[in-house]
Amino acid sequence: MPSEFSLIDKYFRPLASGFAPARELRDDAGYIVVPDGMELVVTKDLIVSGVHFIGDEPAHLIAQKALRVNLSDLAAKGATPYAYSLGLAMPTFDERWIADFARGLGEDQKRFGIRLMGGDTTQSKHDLVISITAYGFIPKGSQVLRSGAKSGDVIFVTGTIGDAGLGLKILRSPDLHGEGIKFLIDRYHLPQPRMDLIAALKQANAVNAVIDVSDGLLADLRHICVASGVGSVINLPQIPLSQAAKAFINQTGVRLADILAMGDDYEILFTADPKSMDKIASVAREFHFPAHKIGSIVPGEDIALLDKHQNALAIEKYGYEH
Ligand code: ADP
Ligand code: MG
């Protein structure tokens, strides 16, 4: 079995090579200089086999998921990705697996403009645990928090909702068949963080509160409502669904309300003043992914889910809870 150090040399050092903050992974720590006028945004997301991924996925996909769930948090905060550190606890040191894992990271580093700047590697008794801390920059004083939603705001969500949750359902019940199965599974394996949208909306002064949707749309909306001291109304017919999700729902009769509690979407949910609608439409067009209006912020503290007849549906579940 190769040693921890030879694996770091061979597979992780190249991912940090030439990046000054990483000191070629030859020091005890990394060093970030925050550019003038900028603020450092720090986020961590940890993923565990059997909880956040199944475990038998190709290693490069596991690596990319671990990185992208963090990129999604940076995206939600409108931060430009800069660097990340990688904590890895592995039940075995399998060199081929690590090579593929590092390849996945290398590809996404290029794709998202982020660099490895350190980490820690250890053996684990059972599960594979990947803990990434990501660092990004925002212009100083430009934070957009969960707590900024105001009564009267419009609620938007990017992309489509429920694909990944349905993908996981399919992986868990291999007897399920239908159109778009591969698309849904891919959406579970590989989140598409919606980079740059929030940064652009911040610049246009067109966003009040934001969160990335990871635990379930309703659960994450509830985080915004609680933090902001407001309630909300969601119109089910306005929830954006992919063709594949629609076909799957028709075929299996999954309740639409349950789709909103499935999680793993890694889309962005935000609220904005209705006056900003035009700006939002033009920014979303520029980034080639839609931002859909799905409801509004209201006084109070409740979340109401309305069907096409404006009847309120019972919410049985808000999202994934650990
Ligand atoms: P220490 O004993 O100071 O914790 P380590 O021996 O764990 O240092 O790590 C040596 C170097 O390798 C450090 O620069 C550390 O950041 C880097 N490193 C260790 N594991 C990883 C990893 N999984 N990814 C990136 N860098 C790593
Ligand atoms: Mg260490």
Rounded to the nearest angstrom, the distance between the terminal CA atoms is 34 Å
- Count of extended strands: 11
**What does the average pLDDT come to?**
95
Q: Major sheet, described briefly?
A: 7 strands, mixed
Give the structural class. Answer: alpha+beta
What fraction, in percent, of the residue positions are helical? 25-40%
Rg over C-alpha atoms, rounded to the nearest angstrom: 20 Å
Widest β-sheet, arrangement of strands: 6-8-5-9-7-10-11
Order of helices and strands: HEHEHEEEHHHEHEHHEHEEE
Bound small molecules, which ones? Answer: adenosine-5'-diphosphate, magnesium ion
Q: How many DSSP H or I helices? A: 10
* Low-confidence segments: none
Describe the structure.
The chain has ten helices and eleven strands. By secondary structure, the protein is an alpha+beta fold. The strands form two sheets. Strands 6-8-5-9-7-10-11 form a seven-stranded mixed sheet, sandwiched between helices. The protein has a four-stranded mixed sheet with strand order 1-4-2-3, covered by helices on one side. Strand 10 (303-306) and strand 11 (312-313) form a beta hairpin. Helix 1 runs parallel beside helix 3 (95-112) and helix 2 runs parallel beside helix 3 (95-112). Adenosine-5'-diphosphate is lined by residues 8, 12, 25, 27-28, 86, 88, 116, 118-121.
Question: What topology emerges from the helices and strands here?
Answer:
Blueprint: H1 4-16, E1 38-48, H2 59-76, E2 80-90, H3 95-112, E3 115-123, E4 129-139, E5 154-158, H4 163-172, H5 181-189, H6 197-203, E6 209-213, H7 217-228, E7 231-235, H8 243-252, H9 256-259, E8 267-272, H10 277-286, E9 291-298, E10 303-306, E11 312-313
Parallel strand pairs: 2-3, 7-10
Antiparallel strand pairs: 1-4, 2-4, 5-8, 5-9, 6-8, 7-9, 10-11
Helix pairs in contact: 1-3, 2-3, 4-5
The chain binds adenosine-5'-diphosphate and magnesium ion.
Adenosine-5'-diphosphate (ADP) binds next to helix 1, strand 2 and strand 3.
